[in-house]
Amino acid sequence: MPFEVIMVVVLGGIRLRGGRGGVFNLLIGVMLISVLHNGMTLLNLSGQVQNLVKGLILISAIVIDNYINPRDAETDTQGDL
Known about the structure:
70% helix
């Protein structure tokens, strides 16, 4: 369950390091995961292969997010006390 929640958040466009997001973004993430899960079920992929595909999609989404929105000096110190 936590794996799917993290996927929904990341695919919904909310950054893992903190940031802003909205309910609409989360709904888009839920729809993407639902379509992905339904398609893999229709293709009769095993649970292990489904988790592998989801993991690869999650890693690629995080890498793309880090490439598009790199950290700068302000975001580095934003969470520090």
